[in-house]
Description:
Blueprint: H1 2-11, H2 17-62, H3 65-68, E1 72-76, E2 79-82, H4 85-116, H5 119-131, H6 137-158, H7 161-164, H8 184-208, H9 212-220, H10 225-253, H11 257-262, H12 280-287, H13 296-328
Antiparallel strand pairs: 1-2
Amino acid sequence: MQQTITADASAIPAGGARRRSGSFGDKLFEGLCRGAGIVVLLTLGGIILTLFIGALPAFLHYGPAFITSDAWNPVEDHREEYGALVSIFGTIVSAVLAIILAVPVAFGISFFLTELAPEWLRRPVGTAIELLAAVPSIIYGMWGLFVVVPFVQMYIQIGLGEYLETIPLIGFIFESRSFAGTSLFTAALVLAIMILPFIAATMRDVFLQVPPVYKESAYGLGATRWEVVRGVVLPYTRISVVGGIMLGLGRALGETMAVTFVIGNANRMPQGIFDPATTIASVIAMEFPESLSGSMKQSALFALGFLLFVISFLVLASSRWLLRSRLKG
């Protein structure tokens, strides 16, 4: 019997008939997947190259002063002066403020969905939060202009402004110099609402990945829900949570239309969070259609786009590194 099996096995070609019949499909699938990856890399490289070539005249003309200058004068004694400092400052500050406003709310939502909410309520609330991510940014901008701007103007800027200004050391940040309602803070508030579902969904998912035995052990020792989250859940998921926050920050940095509606679009350095400001994305959206092809203004706008790409890339690369470190751990 053993000799028969050996003879039959020796009659089967190396690799097997099934493997030979599927080799062409495997190679085709492998080629398509590899081609898709190459297309992504070529597209990304093409975007970077296009931005850099378009921005090169501005970088050569202004040099490093382009990044440190707060001037934006298309016509100034027949000289064009452009600088990126104001828009870079507005982009970073609005995004950071949005993170400060969104993270505590996202944590509260995640804590409620994973620890407090009954089973029948978790799915509807979670779905409602995730639906916020499906709302177009133009809708957020219109809603922000007609609802958030008057609310901030009446109840925060005017209602709380006098009290916030009296805070030692940081009161000057809340001084009101413009009462239009469109401001850096309003843009940050709208951005916080926009990035809330991304951060909350990430936190909820990583909180659910904590092994139940860890939490049950803490409950067995007499820990409360908050003590379990603070002492067990957050230490176990801190890297993934930070990665999710960084992803939300990257989303906030590149937002265009919603910010354009509510930030005020003032090309001057804001002295407080209630002052009108601008961001890189809003400057490009407002002024690129009016720029002449091949002009210095168009090159300066390309330079702003290139700088925004660099900032966003650094933020997203940091988040991927944090998530990868967590997975390796």
